[in-house]
Design goal:
- The chain has a domain of 220 residues.
- It is an alpha+beta fold.
- About 13% of the residues have low confidence.
- The chain contains seven helices and 21 strands.
- The longest helix is centred in the N-terminal third of the chain and has 52 residues.
- A hairpin with a 2-residue loop joins strand 4 and strand 5.
- The protein is elongated, with a radius of gyration of 37 Å.
Length: 455
């Protein structure tokens, strides 16, 4: 009888190694795909939150006629004052460079006509005032809000650092403290509960707080004007992305995957603002110039993972029709700046380089600013075309007073006619005065003698 060797079932070491290698390749590919998917989801979620904030800013501005001031991002987001706007830095007596907590007053990227000086307008930097946006009021106290408006629009309000939640649709004109006593509000145990949905609007999907910078004069109702933006938005090459240049109203910044320079939900800066890459540094250095560039995750000086959203001044048209002066189809300019003809850098409301021609000119002053920017070379057009007209008079018999020019504005005097003064009439010889052959009379000099010139 012949015996045959028996073999037990299973994989050889070679077969097992092949399976393990193949599994590793598939696992790496799966992890990579999941990582890409996760980053995309976070990007999309962050972008949606930024759009929600922008919509809340619009609602706030429509109600309050200004943008909200920033909140203090250095506060723990569970702090009752977190998410509450702070406008205390806006008075002109507070110098540029002053900070309160995580809110700073910095020099804007340009000067506007908001304050009448030549210094850059202020910009306030900080975090998103999510609680103020939820209250839809500039009131930082829940008691003040309920007392003045008669109702509460937040699910959760704070009183003396204690959170309360409304347990009914109760609308009261009484003080908030009275409503607490009446049992219309319930205490949230542990002082740890907050309106999570609205707190999330202040942070991106990586749980970094958004940076919010707003043109200071647009955060005040008294100076709110769409032409007074002073925040610069530029691309990665340094080119402006807004018009007028450096005139964005506000900017929202998500500091992206790495969160460099941002505050976390506990109010701490996890990773300080770096000196490099320069693109990332521009969005966290506390200034008024921000970069909105192409997201590039390749390590190096060009790395940029921030998401940026901003609001700027946009006019739908530059001209409109008006019948204010009784003329049909008259045009007026909608631009808050200057209008240039023959120049792309107008220095005056109407700046013409070259010649202008028209049948009618309606202006209180005509000026020649090629000499200086004052009114020394200006005169009132009524001198030439007014009811009185132009002329010089004399009360001395046998004298004349000639017009020799027009003087510029002198103080409150809007220009005036220059006269020669009394000049004795010329003694006319028989036959009068004549010009030599080939010449023609072109005027009379101060002595009454004709002036002749060859044409």
């Amino acid at each position: 009888m012949t015996k045959h060797p028996s073999y037990s079932g299973g994989f050889t070491l070679f077969e097992l190694s092949v399976v393990m290698v193949a599994s590793g390749v598939l696992l790496v590919a799966g992890i990579r795909s999941y990582d890409i998917y996760t980053k995309h989801q976070r990007f999309t979620e962050t972008y949606e939150r930024m759009n929600a904030i922008k919509a809340s800013f619009s609602d706030f501005t429509n109600s309050i006629t200004r943008y909200p001031c920033p909140a203090d991002p250095s506060l723990d987001m569970m702090d009752p004052n977190a998410g509450v706007e702070n406008c205390s830095l806006m008075p002109t007596t507070i110098p540029i460079g002053t900070c309160v907590g995580g809110i700073c007053k910095v020099a804007g990227a340009r000067d506007t006509e908001a304050d009448g000086d030549a210094d850059p307008d202020p910009v306030l930097t900080g975090g998103v005032p999510f609680r103020t946006l939820r209250w839809a009021s500039a009131t930082a106290s829940a008691t003040d809000w309920v007392t003045s408006h008669g109702y509460v629009v937040d699910d959760i309000v704070w009183e003396n650092s204690v959170p309360y939640k409304c347990v009914s649709d109760h609308i009261s004109t009484a003080a908030f403290a009275t409503d607490i006593t009446a049992g219309m509000w319930m205490f949230l145990e542990g002082n740890k509960t907050a309106n999570i949905m609205h707190m999330e609007l202040a942070q991106d999907a990586w749980e970094h707080q958004f940076t919010y910078a707003v043109s200071g004069y647009l955060a005040q109702a008294a100076t709110f004007d769409s032409a007074y933006g002073s925040v610069a938005i530029r691309n990665e090459f340094g080119n402006t992305l807004v018009q007028p240049t450096d005139g964005a109203h506000y900017v929202l910044v998500s500091h992206g995957d790495n969160g460099l320079g941002s505050h976390n939900i506990n109010g701490n800066i996890t990773f300080s603002c770096p000196a490099s890459p320069a693109l990332e540094e521009s969005n966290c250095n506390g200034g008024s110039v921000f970069i909105d560039g192409l997201r590039t995750m390749m390590p190096g000086i060009g790395y940029f993972d921030d998401l940026v959203m901003y609001e700027t001044y946009v006019i739908s048209r530059l001209w409109d029709y008006s019948n204010a002066f009784g003329f049909e189809n008259s045009l007026y300019n909608l631009n808050n700046g200057n209008v240039g003809i023959g120049t792309d850098n107008p220095a005056y409301k109407m700046d013409i380089i070259g010649s202008a021609s028209g049948d009618n000119v309606n202006s209180p002053l005509l000026c020649d600013y090629t000499h200086d920017s004052g009114n020394a070379y200006c005169f009132d057009p009524d001198i030439l075309g007014g009811v009185t007209g132009i002329g010089c008079t004399t009360a001395t018999p046998n004298n004349i007073n000639l017009v020799i020019g027009i003087a510029g504005q002198d103080g409150a005097n809007p220009g005036y006619v220059l006269c020669s003064g009394d000049i004795p009439l010329p003694i006319l010889t028989p036959g009068g005065q004549t010009c030599p052959a080939g010449q023609f009379i072109v005027g009379i000099n101060l002595f009454g003698t004709i002036v002749c010139e060859t044409p």
